[in-house]
Amino acid sequence: MRIATWNINSVRIRIGHVARFVTDAKPDVLCLQEIKCRDGEFPLNAFADMGMRHVHVVGQKGWHGVAIASKHKLEKLPSPPLCPAEEARTAAVRLKGVTIQTLYVPAGGETPQPVENPKFAHKLAFLERMKALYRGADTNLVLTGDLNIAPGEHDVWNHKQLLDVVSHTPVETEALEAIRVGGGFTDLMRAQTPEPAKIYTWWSYRNQDWRGSNRGRRLDHVWGTADLAPALKSMTIHDATRDWDKPSDHAPVMVELKG
DNA sequence: ATGGTCGCTAAGCGA
Question: pTM of whole model > 0.90?
């Protein structure tokens, strides 16, 4: 089974990119973040044309919003209650004996100070809820999404320079690692491509020559509970999409699990 | 140190 995750930054404006990616990479399941539309505005017909006939949409007007699309029948599950602001940032489904969750963690604003920056406080509160929710061993759970944290020094283009930049501050990276360990998750991307290889999934729109300068960060993640780790066959960051016309600033990540 | 670019919706916010 192939599971992909992609912060699409508006599913309506980039529906053609989704179709091209589905044709090229043939995911069974595609988790999307930042769909930026209400449930009723989601382009279900276009997904059906791609063979993705089963879709769980958790949208809201204009901002945020997540969805899980699948070629196989899925059971919609309640969204994990992680967002203190109750924004549309989480979705979950059950499919072929596996629970798949997708998250869009708050970006956190500019300043990594919760007192003066409420957006950073919001991000930290979201992470606290993740820590509580995922504590203790689970099985057959795949967690995907834009976690808006690049946890390791090889997940950013310049570790020292980004230590005080939101997404790579110690308070965030340590929180994410504590969530991962506490939940018994394996980082499937790093299981396939261990450090010190540098791997990124996001490149700012403000870097025109994104590949030349390669100032990327690994903000998007695929975790699996430990029981699933032996099934991991491959992991691909489809960064070719970043060169398509009017791309998302994130590239899709896909893992392939045996069975 | 600054500004650089997007998408939403209709001037500015969030990323």
Answer: yes
